[in-house]
Amino acid sequence: MSTTTVALNEKQRTPLRPARVLLHVFLVVTSLVWLAPLLWAVYAALRPYSETSDKGYVSWPDTLNFDNFKNAFQQSDMTHYFVNTLIIAVPAVVLTLLLSSMVAFYVSRFDFRLNIFLLLVFTAGNLLPQQVIITPLYRMYLLIDLPGVTASGKLYDSALGLVLIHVAFQSGFCAFVLSNYMRMLPHELTEAALVDGASVWRMYWQIVLPLCKPAMAALGTLLSIWIYNDFFWAIVLISTGENMPITSALNNLSGQYFTDPNLVAAGALLTAIPTLIVYFVLQRQFVSGLTLGANKG
Amino acid sequence: MSADITTKTPEAAAEPPPGPAPVDKRVPRGHQRLLTRRDRVALAFMAGVPTILHVALVWVTALASILLAFTTWDGIGFDSIQWVGLQNFRELFTNNPQFWPALQHNVIWFVALILIPTPFGLFLAMQLDKNIRFSRVYQTAFFLPVVVSLAVTGFVWQLIYNPDTGLINSVIGANKPGHYIDWIGDPKLNLWAVLIAASWRHTGYMMILYLAGLKGVDPSLREASALDGANEWQTFKSVIFPTLRPTNTVVLVVTIIESLRAFDLVYVFNKGAQGTELLSILITNNIIGESSRIGYGSAIAVVLLVISLVVIIPYLITTFRKERSG
């Protein structure tokens, strides 16, 4: 992936041997098998229900159009749920990056006794299955009254509640990754700044953070996709269907048009589009984020 | 964009660099004397706010799970909490027809993932690491299922498994009344049907982790092995696989945690009906269901917690020990 490998590629790319051809055949076939479920969904979504119920799903198409996509989008008011997701995901990603980079800065730049312990707490917390904490969390959210702050008057059933749990949960992973990253930055940088009388905040904001841009970009991409894709937290912590983010809303929405699998396919694919766009545009960031802190469960 | 730096980071950070790399240069003691009072306040704030949030929502609740597991509570007032000792656990172990199947399914989930998609992901990574043309295109295809949410994955696979309209039954002619194969409803089949969908996703995930690991394997090792006349399998077995040890550890931990967390797919498929019960599903159904029993649900959570900690603690100890000595 790095420049050195690219150079090697050019030099070492051997002429096609039979083994290579065989390998390509294998990879093409396997890739197609891997894409098949998604392509099948696209195919079903492009066909009118009347045609597939008449001719069966495994048949040559007479009509292919985007009607199912249009209907799925309009019937279930998807714009509303996309906005719900934005309201949750944007603050959650920004806050997670901000808070975890602050902890990472503290842990990696200052040798206080607490460091390893603090990092352990964060990392371990992130590895727990969500269901371990959900019962008390659910009760806690029901007990916390926030009249006037959230529409529901509680932390339960509110975007705020979801943002908080996303930030709390994901910051474990990000703090771990970022602290490793910051530790690789030369210590002289902050040392010099400190001697020059720069405040700790300035060291963080103007020196360390800009150097962490690649890691932050990778984590930001990863977090956006994870939080967008979250299903579990919203299923339990949101009770009003109207308040659900798109991924969890899909479960209810599919109930509305469950007699029409083509429409379900179209609806499901529509919710996947934003993640696919982010992935294709920021593929490098996503993949490097994933491997950067490969301890993620 | 600084893509070049980004792409170099995975190898650098996925595992702490081997040898005496200067990762952990201790800051001299005198450092702290330079801090003003304002700096101290700033530091306390920077470390404190995230920690409080994380501890309050993750660790306090985890502890609460443990405590509540020994009580019964209707969730209304704190004074209605009653200590019942081990009663919840006794009932769970002896009197819940779903508990042991659920535990068993979590174990099957792990065994299936580690035996099939994980080695296959490694195999794909090995092939894609051979300076092959179109490597990126293939990678994208295999990795796509990891990007798509599990909820969407569930719906997509239902189009394949549906007894009436699904791809499989349509192809094999089992979509007529009387011939139905109910991939999602039949308790003998449904776990395997879900596991195929889960494996579809897991393969790509493992492939990416192994690809990053393979980038860290010193090419001269491979050359030396080739010079010694070792064939591909021998090179893999005695040279490459041993050097992938750090990646293998991560892969093992990720796979175990994924098997314990497994939820979304099953919930979308059939809400964990007979045949696909999982611990995570039992806990969630206990909350969402009409007869929510807090203590009882927490007892299941404690079982899940104990299993997770058996994995998490040794992993963290080795990781952090390495970091300290690194």
Order of helices and strands of chain B: HHEEHHHHHHHHHHHHH
The helicity of chain B comes to 55-70%
At the first level of CATH, what is the class of the largest domain in chain A? Mainly Alpha
- Strand-pairing-aware structural class of chain A: mainly alpha
CATH class of the domain at 99-276 in chain B: Mainly Alpha
Shape of chain A: globular
What does it look like?
The complex is a heterodimer of chains A (297) and B (326). With 297 residues, chain A is mainly α. Chain A folds into two domains: 3-69, no CATH class; 71-289, MetI-like (MetI-like fold, Orthogonal Bundle). Helix content of chain A is 76%, strand content 0%. Chain A has helices at 3-12, 18-46, 49-55, 67-75, 78-109, 115-127, 130-143, 159-183, 187-195, 200-211, 213-229, 232-237, 246-256, 261-281, 283-292. In chain A, helix 5 (78-109) packs parallel to helix 8 (159-183) and helix 5 runs antiparallel to helix 11 (213-229). Mean pLDDT of chain A is 87; it is low at 1-11. With 326 residues, chain B is an all-alpha fold. Chain B has a domain at 99-276: Orthogonal Bundle (MetI-like fold), CATH 1.10.3720. Chain B is 69% helix and 1% strand. Chain B has 15 helices and two strands. Chain B has helices at 3-14, 37-68, 87-95, 99-115, 117-128, 135-147, 150-161, 167-172, 190-215, 219-227, 232-243, 245-261, 264-270, 279-288, 294-325; strands at 71-72, 82-83. In chain B, helix 4 (99-115) packs antiparallel against helix 12 (245-261), helix 6 crosses helix 9 (190-215) and helix 9 (190-215) packs antiparallel against helix 12. Chain B starts with a helix and ends with a helix. Mean pLDDT of chain B is 86; it is low at 1-30.
